[in-house]
UniProtKB/TrEMBL annotation:
Residues 74-266 form the N-acetyltransferase domain. InterPro entries: Acyl_CoA_acyltransferase, GNAT_dom. This is N-acetyltransferase domain-containing protein. Signal peptide: none annotated. It comes from Microthlaspi erraticum. The lineage of its organism: Eukaryota, Viridiplantae, Streptophyta, Embryophyta, Tracheophyta.
Length: 268
């Protein structure tokens, strides 16, 4: 399964970015009028999932900057298509990771206007659980938790806010509680090597628990209309359809048309 999409580029960027996602992505800061990014969902992966001990998967909020950097690297690896023959590709990948890393820190620290609270939730595995066939993933997304080397294999953002830039806005709750009761999932991604291991579902379940701790009552996520794998995952997690993006808006933003999915969270 190909999962969701990462952070929005800064206004100085001029490259095209592609989403490799099972839950179509939202990029976390709006592009300038002179810089448009092209997103597209990618069909389910045919890569065979490695044999891992699923009990070693840890789903938690980011605990260190090293882990946050590993999450940023996973997003660059997941959401971008690179031509291996391109000049200086490693420097370009690092540039994108640095930009995502700084944007993540800004959102989590509460410095991004419009976001009340943001948490980066990651799925990690011990480095020893991944085979040599996952060498690129291990080298790009490795960090140390102080006890052992681990690898970020899945990630998402939980955003407490009224809306996400350039996305359909949710309508629940209404009135004065909207600033405190509504949150959006974004940047949901799972390394292609770990598809079909339940990582996406576990990430969403963890984010629901964090949202409840924040007092969130209504949780939203966006998905492209033709991404059946993503819709299946979210429906399994309890989401239901609320609304569809107008076709003109999708054309204007040069991306596939999206649905807004909604989940009501129990308050007790």
């Amino acid at each position: 399964m190909a999962f969701l999409c990462s952070s929005l580029p800064s206004s100085s960027c001029s490259i095209a970015i592609f989403s490799d996602s099972n839950t179509d992505g939202f990029r976390s800061s709006p592009p300038s009028s002179s810089c448009r990014f092209r997103l597209r969902p990618i069909s389910a992966s045919n890569i065979c999932a490695p044999a891992i001990d699923r009990s070693t998967i840890v789903i938690s909020e980011t605990a260190s900057e090293d882990e946050l950097w590993a999450a940023a690297c996973l997003r660059v690896r997941t959401f971008n298509e690179f031509d291996p023959s391109s000049y200086n590709i490693q420097d370009h990948r690092r540039y994108l990771a640095e930009r995502e890393f700084e944007a993540l820190k800004e959102r989590i620290s509460g410095k991004r206007e419009g976001f009340t609270k943001v948490s980066c939730v990651n799925a990690t595995l011990p480095l020893s659980q991944l085979s040599t066939s996952s060498e690129d993933l291990c080298s790009a997304c490795k960090f140390s938790d102080g006890i052992e080397d681990r690898v970020v294999v899945g990630s998402l953002d939980l955003n407490q806010c009224r809306w996400l830039p350039d996305e359909i806005a949710g309508t629940k709750p209404e009135g004065f509680t909207v600033d405190f009761g509504r949150a959006y999932l974004s940047n949901v991604c799972v390394a292609k090597e770990l598809h079909r291991n339940g990582v996406g579902y576990k990430l969403i379940e963890k984010s629901k628990g964090v949202a409840r701790d924040w007092g969130i009552t209504d949780l939203y996520v966006h998905v492209t209309v033709d991404n059946e794998a993503a819709k299946s995952l979210y429906m399994k997690s309890g989401f239901e359809r609320e609304s569809a993006e107008p076709a003109w808006q999708a054309r204007y933003l040069n991306r596939p048309q999206r649905l807004l999915l909604w989940l009501s969270l129990p308050t007790s």
